[in-house]
């Protein structure tokens, strides 16, 4: 059965019904199966019931790549991409969406009830009765709207009881998430991958329900380090992964990360000096402002569980460029106790900005290939653990294709038999 699935995913045939047909007419599959012709239910049940084993096969092939010295590089790229789930947008609900729908229903019910009241007034004043068909249509619409309101309120109650922020009716684990600023939201999963830069093999992947990437850096970097043979690994990611705690956790694990910092400064947006314009002198423990004054350490406070050191100068009142710096009494600069790690990461990027180009050339191509194989459609399975199995088959098929292109089929078969 695994042969059938590997053949199918290598040849853009992931549906169990499609594989059932191919087993009866495709000579390659007839040879692979020894003329066995399993029905679609048997094929589908194998994928559903053996998810853990299928995911291990994907991991074992990555280990085989390591044994073949294909994972000797020291640079990996990390990225996430959104894949559609078996869940239409219309069957995904957030609190805001429910409030909007209930508001429209309440207005529609009020409108139809008003129409019935007016019909009663006309009947009392003139004795004229509205056409029966029109009355029945209005009553049917009212009944439908009231049933819809009950359904939406039951979903709202479920969210109150479970604490969920979203409810998806077809695939309960799917979540509405943004893709890019210019693209509409989808209901699906966020698939994280780590791709090594030399041979573009996917060394680790994870299917998540989170609509953002910022909590995945240390997890994916650590997964890559466990697989790669190098002693010093460099992990490159885009600005969506910039989170100070994640960067520090990766650096503490011995992984050199390269992540650009997003430009989110309110001061810079107002045309004033940004924190980056203040140079830090680690020996004196002072910040030097654009006017050349020293901002000295004053006290340490707590913010979101972090120890934050505050710096400012008494010279701000007489500064000639104060209007470009602050509208307050003095400009204050805050420094996290782990700020030195973030500065080291920024220096690493400033020293070689081309590393970001390596990231895009390395990690984005596998996503495009896999989505092309899928036919730009949704996953076939539902629930997180089943979708993870399906993604493992996609990743395994992609890695097999890469190894066949790198080493050739005979060499790969020999390595698998060894």
UniProtKB/TrEMBL annotation:
Top-level taxon of the source organism: Bacteria
Chain ranges of the Transposase DDE domain: 288-403
InterPro entries, alphabetized: IS1182_transpos, Tnp_DDE_dom, Transposase_InsH_N
Transposase InsH N-terminal domain residues: 1-48
Name of protein: Transposase domain
